[in-house]
From TrEMBL:
Gene3D superfamilies in alphabetical order: Hypothetical protein af1432
Protein name per Swiss-Prot or TrEMBL: HD domain-containing protein
SUPFAM superfamilies: HD-domain/PDEase-like (SSF109604)
Domain HD-GYP, first and last residues per copy: 1-183
Pfam family, any one: HD_5
Length: 183
């Protein structure tokens, strides 16, 4: 079995998390391809692996809203938990992929976690952008309520993603939307 198959088995502890990781990987693949990034397959793989650590959460935390201050330590530790699982299922994973998994919640200016990097790598921000976009438009899967719009999701991503990511993500979303069969 390759790492994707093993990761999929682990992620399927929570099918909602597996679905999220798969969609984030698909979006990341489309965005990095559009940006002609040479290492786009590795970035896409990191995107699929990014939330492995959420499989260690108690099930109620996945769908909890609002989150309580006491949950924050577990939540902010999940990129490290992802790395720990990755180390078990793929002991020789490339450092590049490890860094992206660890850094998918880093934000410019140091407002992210777990390391508060001032200038996260572009690849981290691409996964972060696709992650936030998917988490918002599919939030209703985790937390019952009205579906949130693509426009709202993009406005949230815009708060931290540089313009080249915004342009590519917007194009990918427009293309996906326009190729959807009309009901
Ligand atoms: Fe995450
Ligand atoms: Fe995520």
């Amino acid at each position: 079995m390759d790492v994707v198959d093993i990761a999929k088995k682990t992620l399927l502890i929570y099918p909602l998390v597996e679905g999220h990781c798969r969609r984030v990987a698909n979006l990341t693949y489309a965005v990095t391809s559009l940006l002609h990034m040479s290492n786009h397959k590795k970035i896409t793989l990191a995107a699929y692996l990014h939330d492995l650590g959420k499989t260690t959460w108690p099930p109620e935390l996945l769908t909890k809203f609002p989150i309580e201050p006491s949950d924050w330590a577990v939540i902010t530790a999940h990129p490290i938990a992802s790395l720990n699982i990755l180390d078990e299922i793929w002991p020789k994973s490339p450092e590049f992929i490890n860094a992206l998994v660890r850094g998918h919640h880093e934000r410019p200016g140091g407002g992210g976690y777990p390391d508060g990097l001032q200038e996260p790598a572009l690849e981290m921000l691409i996964i972060g952008a696709c992650d936030v976009y998917d988490a918002i438009i599919n939030r209703h899967e985790f937390i019952p309520g009205e579906a949130l719009s693509s426009e709202f999701a993009l406005s949230q991503v815009e708060q931290f993603a540089p313009v080249q990511i915004m342009d590519a993500l917007t194009k990918v979303i427009q293309k996906n939307t326009s190729t959807m069969p009309s009901a």
